[in-house]
Amino acid sequence: MEEDKVLHFTTFYGQSVEIPFEQLPGQSRSIHEFDKLDRVGEGTYGIVYRAKDKVKNEIVAIKKIRMEREKDGAPISGIREIRILMSVRHENVVQLLDVVVGRSLESIFLVMEYCEQDLASLLDNMQSSFSEAQIKCIMIQLFRGLQHLHKSFIVHRDLKVSNLLLTDKGCLKIADFGLARRCSVPAQPMTPQVVTLWYRAPELLLQSKIQTTAIDMWAAGCILGELFLHKPLFPGRTEIHQLELIIDLLGTPNDQIWDGFSDLPILKNFSLKRQPYNNIKHVFTWLSAAGQRVLNFLFMYDPTRRATAEEALQSSYFKENPLPCEPEMMPSFPQHRIRRGKDIK
Ligand code: ADP
Ligand code: MG
């Protein structure tokens, strides 16, 4: 049987399952075992509810996933998200607890651990920025989660603040694997249109066919910059504008700093804005030399020279004062989430 038509998994509760996709309904738990409480999020691909598992008496998050049938009739992207989430277990990756089906194949729900905040709504609801100690605490957890994913050859491909969740204990969880892929070594071409524009790496903007785990590291750099500035670092309106914002901060790339740069196909009929300076130290004036180094390392134009998650974790920035705070010291606003959910209804 073709791989994409079978679902293999072990549920959190230890049950090992391998189901031909057509047989999914009826073999898993029913959505009626859950009470939907509030709507907590609605992104591109699904609606997320806070819900109560009536059987286990636990609060969980339920995401209804898109199960549009593709080419050969199998809902590939939905299955891919389920597969990838089922294959990883790490403190900094959201835990999938179960897969639950509605009456038809069109409604499949992921049951996940519930996290009180996402970083986007937390940033929206905070008057002031995170402290540097808090920012380090967030980034270390992000890099640990990424280190685990990348070691397992998973590229997330859509890292941004709304896809990072925080529990009430200050634990960060990477979520939303709707665009994630397994990558191979050597890297194979993938569909280019990934990663929300503001977090998109220059090699994607310049249409390089090869995508590696380095695209997640660029996005992590954008997240670090956003935490520092308390606003998006590169809020481009179009792909060209996005490249211009990047060049304004980092200077125009060239063959010395990016091996193979001038061979990128798009540069045959398009030339980039000229700006010779790296302005990191002018924008992040208050940041220590080690902090500026880690930003520059995450923003290497050449994806092969960009920091890996492991290298980022080893940065002296995380070892100097102010030291990362303990996760318990992260701010939380337990109320705003629920209120926001009610507003949407
Ligand atoms: P989409 O593909 O639609 O963006 P996400 O998985 O990112 O789906 O979920 C959308 C939003 O729902 C998130 O930004 C977050 O606010 C909320 N959310 C997702 N998963 C959880 C969870 N496990 N616990 C709490 N909230 C969640
Ligand atoms: Mg999302």
Automatic annotation (TrEMBL):
Pfam family of the protein (one): Pkinase
Q: What is its EC number?
A: 2.7.11.22
Catalytic activity from the UniProt record = L-threonyl-[protein] + ATP = O-phospho-L-threonyl-[protein] + ADP + H(+); L-seryl-[protein] + ATP = O-phospho-L-seryl-[protein] + ADP + H(+)
Quote one Gene Ontology molecular function term: ATP binding
Q: Does the keyword Amino-acid biosynthesis apply?
A: no
The UniProt record lists the Protein kinase domain at 34-318
Its BP terms in the Gene Ontology are:
positive regulation of embryonic development; regulation of mitotic cell cycle
**Sequence positions that bind ATP:** K64
Recorded hits in CDD domains, A to Z, give: STKc_CDK10
Top enzyme class of this protein? transferase
Q: Which family does it belong to?
A: Belongs to the protein kinase superfamily. CMGC Ser/Thr protein kinase family. CDC2/CDKX subfamily.
Spell out the protein name for this chain: cyclin-dependent kinase
Say which species the protein is native to: Tetranychus urticae
